[in-house]
């Protein structure tokens, strides 16, 4: 029997609340299927750990994690710990250390999910954003010069390597080819005359190998406008680290809200474990109150199942979330219901068992 070993970093705030429901769903699916099982190992890393130990994770944290099949992350961030410390010390350390260079974010309006846009049908919002996840604007290369003086300067350097750009762009082309979908390249070459011109050149070069893929290119400001005005024009989107971060949060806003936003950080070669997470943040003000919506954490379980080659179960999880949203019997307050966080996992499993 196949055993998937999963490292669980529930993290901060509502992270433990929502991750418990995702674990419940994944374990239940394994039991229903019978051909595989899951083995969870929990790690208490995050901001509380930092306040005790002075670091977000142990020095040998990556060595501890490297032999797992996947990492399941809840949320990172808590008052009293600077955001740059929490981000750099855990999430980005794992992404970069394990070369998780693909950030895969589905932006899909599920049946029954709320949408703030007028006259938009479910099928109009159905895209996958492929975001470069290891360098670019978030490479954290720079310097502070003349600190504390009137001449103080902050330098922040984007890093765009040929290897880094080409592999994420090629992944997006392959995905578009496999699924028979269009591919939209998003950049800002008119203002960023080195990095984004370079990115666009590589997009065109790689595109010569995929003549069957229909492509278009947009400036990031125009893409932001069309995400709202004409979301149906997007199917597969590829973009840089910063632009992908911003566009996918906009995508979450038009596709049911942050409570329905999941993300995968992939090392496609599987040399290192990939990491799956809801991307809604830690929301410490509602932690432990049963108010958090765990559907994004459960959606990230669907992504994990897809990555494990269990695509049929991955699709069933999405279908079950849609059924839950349409039936409206077991929803958390953000979706207009009265259910508690710890009721959602059981409700999803009940739907899957029908």
From TrEMBL:
Enzyme Commission code(s) on record: 1.1.1.83
Gene3D superfamilies: Isopropylmalate Dehydrogenase
Entry-linked InterPro entries: ICDH/IPMDH, IsoCit/isopropylmalate_DH_CS, IsoPropMal-DH-like_dom, TTC_DH
Cofactor: Mn(2+); Mg(2+)
Catalytic activity: (R)-malate + NAD(+) = pyruvate + CO2 + NADH
Keyword Manganese: yes
Enzyme class, first EC level, given as a word: oxidoreductase
The Isopropylmalate dehydrogenase-like domain, residue ranges: 5-348
Keywords on record: Manganese, Metal-binding, NAD, Oxidoreductase
Gene Ontology molecular-function annotations: D-malate dehydrogenase (decarboxylating) (NAD+) activity; magnesium ion binding; NAD binding
Similarity-based family: Belongs to the isocitrate and isopropylmalate dehydrogenases family.
UniProt name for this protein: D-malate dehydrogenase (decarboxylating)
Naturally occurring in which organism (per UniProt): Selenomonas ruminantium
């Amino acid at each position: 029997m196949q055993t998937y070993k999963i490292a669980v970093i529930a993290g901060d705030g509502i992270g433990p609340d929502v991750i418990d429901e995702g674990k419940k769903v994944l374990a239940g699916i394994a039991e229903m299927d019978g051909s595989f099982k899951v083995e969870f190992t929990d790690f208490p890393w995050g901001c509380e750990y930092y306040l005790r130990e002075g670091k977000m994770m142990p020095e040998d944290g990556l060595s501890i994690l490297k032999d797992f099949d996947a990492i399941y992350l809840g949320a990172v961030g808590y008052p009293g710990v600077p955001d740059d410390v929490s981000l750099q010390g855990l999430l980005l350390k794992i992404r970069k250390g394990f070369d998780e260079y693909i950030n895969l974010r589905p932006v899909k309006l599920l049946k029954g999910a709320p949408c703030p846009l007028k006259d938009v049908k479910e099928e109009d919002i159905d895209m996958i954003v492929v975001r470069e996840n290891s360098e670019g604007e978030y490479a954290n290369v720079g310097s502070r010069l003349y600190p504390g003086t009137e001449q103080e300067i902050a330098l922040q350097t984007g890093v765009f390597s040929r290897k880094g750009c080409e592999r994420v762009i090629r992944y997006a082309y392959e995905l578009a080819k496999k699924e028979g979908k269009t591919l939209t390249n998003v950049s800002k070459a008119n203002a960023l005359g080195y990095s984004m011109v370079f990115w666009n050149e590589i997009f065109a070069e790689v595109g010569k190998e995929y003549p069957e893929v229909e492509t278009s290119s947009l400036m990031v400001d125009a893409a932001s406008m069309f995400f709202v005005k004409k979301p149906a024009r997007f199917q597969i989107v590829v973009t840089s680290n910063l632009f992908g971060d911003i566009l996918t949060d906009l995508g979450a806003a038009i596709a049911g809200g942050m409570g329905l936003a999941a993300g995968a950080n992939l090392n496609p070669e599987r040399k290192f474990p990939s990491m799956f997470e809801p991307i809604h943040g830690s929301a410490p003000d509602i932690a432990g109150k049963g108010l958090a919506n765990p559907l994004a954490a459960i959606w990230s379980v669907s992504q994990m199942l897809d990555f494990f080659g269990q695509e049929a179960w991955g699709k069933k999880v999405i279908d079950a979330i849609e059924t839950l949203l349409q039936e409206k019997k077991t929803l958390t307050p953000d979706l207009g219901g009265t259910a508690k966080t710890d009721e959602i996992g059981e409700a999803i499993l009940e739907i899957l068992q029908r």
